[in-house]
Amino acid sequence: MAGLAKVFGSGAMTNSIMEIENNDLLFVIGSNTTEAHPIIGLWMKKAVRKGAKLIVADPRKINLVKFSHLWLRQKPGTDVALLNGIAHVILKEGLEDKDFIHKWTEGFEEWKRSVEEYSPERVEGITGVPKDDIIKAARLYGTAEKAGIYYTMGITQHSHGTDNVFSIANLALLTGNLGKESAGVNPLRGQNNVQGSTDMGCISDSYPGYQKVMIPSVREKFEEEWGASLSDRPGLSTVEMTEAALEGRLKALYVMGENPVLSDPHMAHTVESLKSLELLVVQDIFLTETTELAHVVLPAASFAEKNGTFTNTERRVQRVRKAVNPPGDAREDLWIISAISERIGYTMGYDHPEEIFREIGRIWPALAGMDYRRLEPNGLQWPCPTKDHPGTPYLFRGGFPRGNGIFTSVEYKPSGETPDKEYPFLLTTGRILFRYHTGTMSARSKALQSVAPEAHVEINNEDAVKLGIKEGQKVKVKSRRGTISLKAKVTERSPKGVLFIPIHFNHASANTLTNDLLDPHSKTPEFKVCAVRIEV
């Protein structure tokens, strides 16, 4: 969607965290916010206390459901149908923002035709959400003056995740909920500085600032700045690297601050791939399941042991200040990268991270107005193009970068795997409050370990009775890719036919089971849906 895609593709919130409390309507979909983003969850609860309406769309009865005015319990993987159905009702009842559509969008009529078949009755059959609730959701969202959509990996980690995001963007365009305060489309980033990492080019087809490597003028700009010849070929995504290594096309891999053995889908496949490499280098602050396979481990400095900037989910660039020296042989990332670069023939010549920050401002206009002094004390939100610019709390005020926002027609497609006789359950995965990602840091906390010591599989009460499974009983969960053993947690939180396993535990890794089928556009794996069976 041109300008919109640059934002939603990067995962950046169009609006700010503090604006949440002034939403009239919050639509949270594919986000267990109070566990995965607990601080933002507090802002959402504050908004509800101030009178905001809350719609939660999630297959599981997450904590946020207790504060909601409407819970849409869709079947995992059916988000496109649900969102198209809500849009269908908004159009049918004339709740769309006609002035906004006329002034700021393109492709409306063609897109409108694409949602004509998504009646509430048809969508109920696909999603399992009662048609009356679909209509109610459309009326709540369509009549709100300031409606914000909030989502996370429950939307993106599908083989059709890009279609899910387009459907969300369509809904915001339809109702004019972009370019104004306390509204927007707001993907919540899952890890500290993951926004800053993608901003700085840690994605396979872009230089810093989402500037595409295949555009000659962009490449020439970076070649001039860096004094080096650069490739015009996009790189590989994480899962594509796994396949390339197995096929012998990728010989070496340099992993920084990542634990792909636990974080990537189809764990056995990932381990086999990493073992096939001629050289695996891992740079991290702790030893992990991935460092066990490495030929070289480079001990890195933690956040408190280095200088620089972090960028958070609302595009806020903030200073990071060194508080203590790195222990032992650990070094700052910049020191390590510069030393390797020097040894292979290219001298970077940076003496301090601030030099890099100034360089970023020269080559990415969105940061041109920032410097370390201006980041004191609370940071600035990009875009901030000039030295007198205050930063941008919300995007698209007065229009879109390309001129207009484009409606994108998307059709519902089933997930890559659906339950069958051999694998009758649908598995979805996610986070819990007292663990974090693959546990590289949180698993070392005795306090967190005492609260969440081991993995579990959520199973619905009725399914448990049918299979003779008791609370706390050890069971096996099997997919077409592997098997894990863990304790059962019998609950109404997960619906019938759906199992849930948290992603954090190495002794029962959910990603032993998950599907490595990729979204063809984003190259994101389908972590959130696969077919499994459960055995006593």
Task: Describe, in plain words, how this protein is organized in 3D.
This protein is 31% helix and 18% strand. It contains 19 helices and 23 strands. The strands form seven sheets. It has a six-stranded mixed sheet. A five-stranded parallel sheet has the order 3-2-1-5-6, with helices on both faces. The longest helix has 15 residues, at 161-175. It is globular. The N and C termini lie far apart (48 Å).
Q: Write out the CATH superfamily name of the largest domain.
A: Dimethylsulfoxide Reductase, domain 2
The overall pLDDT average reads 94
Which fold name corresponds to the CATH topology of the largest domain? Dimethylsulfoxide Reductase, domain 2
Rounded radius of gyration (Å): 23 Å
Structural class: alpha/beta
Largest sheet: 6 strands, mixed
Major sheet strand order: 17-19-18-23-16-20
Helix content: 25-40%
Percentage of residues in strands: 15-25%
Count of β-strands: 23
List keywords for this structure.
about 525 residues; Barwin-like endoglucanases; about 30% helix; Dimethylsulfoxide Reductase, domain 2; alpha/beta; globular
How would you summarize this macromolecular structure in one to three sentences?
It is built from 19 helices and 23 strands.
Tell me the layout of helices and strands.
Blueprint: H1 3-10, E1 25-29, H2 33-36, H3 38-49, E2 53-57, E3 70-72, H4 79-92, H5 98-104, E4 105-106, H6 108-114, H7 120-127, H8 131-143, E5 147-151, H9 153-156, H10 161-175, E6 184-187, H11 194-199, E7 206-207, E8 211-212, H12 216-226, H13 238-246, E9 252-256, H14 260-263, H15 267-276, E10 279-284, E11 296-299, E12 308-311, E13 316-320, H16 333-343, H17 353-363, E14 380-381, E15 405-406, E16 425-430, H18 446-451, E17 456-460, H19 461-467, E18 474-478, E19 483-491, E20 498-502, E21 515-518, E22 525-526, E23 530-535
